[in-house]
Amino acid sequence: MTEPHPVDTELATRLRLAVGRLNRRIRLATNDIPPLQFSALATLDKHGPLRSGELAQREAVTAPTMTRVLAALAERGLVTRESDPTDARSVRVSLSPAGIEALTRIRSERTALLGARLARLSDEQRAALVAGLPALEALVEGD
Q: Using the 8-state DSSP alphabet, how is residue 50 labeled?
């Protein structure tokens, strides 16, 4: 059995700050949907129609919080509610066509913003990012 590597706190701090700041700058440039609402839309896109409680669990928020999020999204026409075919007492939430369009648009805008930042890097810096992607992807594997 291999020994775990000691924690490199300087690396962890620098990575946390860089990733956090980059994420915040990109998110703020396309902030027409609050982060939790956007995350809920992305989860619905990935997993299909879900009950509110299932969505709350996946987003790690309370049921009342998710109820407020879904009310705001429904008010904007970004989600639809339908009876659960397996349980008539329950409702499942899914993306509306407007929700799909909003999610697609925001993802495209964020990708373009990141692409513009990547274009400012040198070839060597971009190559270093490409080489580091497997390690970054491993950090979020299983989430």
A: E
Q: What is the DSSP string of 52-119?
A: HHHHHHHHT--HHHHHHHHHHHHHTT-EEEEEETTEEEEEEEEE-HHHHHHHHHHHHHHHHHHHHHHH
Pull the structure tokens for residue 79.
């989600």
pLDDT (tens place) for every residue of the chain, 143 residues total:
567 778 889 999 999 999 999 999 998 888 789 999 999 999 999 998 999 999 999 999 999 999 999 999 999 999 999 987 887 788 899 999 999 999 999 999 999 999 999 999 999 999 999 999 999 999 988 65
Length of the chain: 143
Residue 23, number of CB atoms within 10 A of its CB: 13
Q: Which two tokens stand for residue 127?
A: 């190559």
Rounded CA-CA distance 8/15 in Å is: 11
- Could you tell me what percentage of the chain is helix, strand and coil, using 3-state DSSP and rounding each to the nearest 5? 65, 10, 20
